[in-house]
């Protein structure tokens, strides 16, 4: 398997972590900073609809 790098800091994600969480895109340190991987995955897809609408409204006005 090709080494995977953290999308935040660019460090290589440990093999153990990839095996435990194949979908992860962050190293342990960055994942910990943002909370759980579930939370960070939510950030990956964007954000929830209400937050997105708020953001759109904020940039538009
Ligand atoms: Zn990282």
List the defining traits of the structure above.
61 residues, binds zinc ion
Characterise the protein shown here:
Helices cover 54% and strands 0% of the residues. It has one domain (15-60). It is built from four helices and no strands. The protein is mainly α. The protein has helices at residues 15-20, 28-34, 37-44, 49-60. The termini are far apart. The longest helix is centred in the last third of the chain and has 12 residues, at 49-60. Bound molecules: zinc ion. Zinc ion binds next to α2.
Write the layout of secondary structure elements.
Blueprint: H1 15-20, H2 28-34, H3 37-44, H4 49-60
- Series of H and E elements: HHHH
Portion in beta strands: under 5%
| Helix residue percentage | 40-55%
As a whole number of angstroms, the C-alpha radius of gyration is 14 Å
**Oligomeric status:** single chain
**CA-CA gap between termini:** 47 Å
Overall mean pLDDT stands at 75
Count the DSSP helices.
4
Report the count of strand segments: 0
Low-confidence parts = none
Structural class: mainly alpha
Shape verdict: elongated
Largest sheet: none
The hetero molecules present are:
zinc ion
**How many structural domains in the coordinates?**
1
């Amino acid at each position: 398997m090709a080494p995977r790098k953290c999308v935040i800091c660019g460090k290589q994600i440990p093999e153990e972590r990839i095996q435990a969480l194949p979908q992860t895109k962050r190293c342990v340190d960055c994942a910990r900073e943002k909370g759980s991987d579930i939370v960070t995955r939510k950030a990956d897809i964007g954000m929830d609809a209400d937050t997105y609408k708020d953001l759109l409204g904020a940039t538009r006005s």
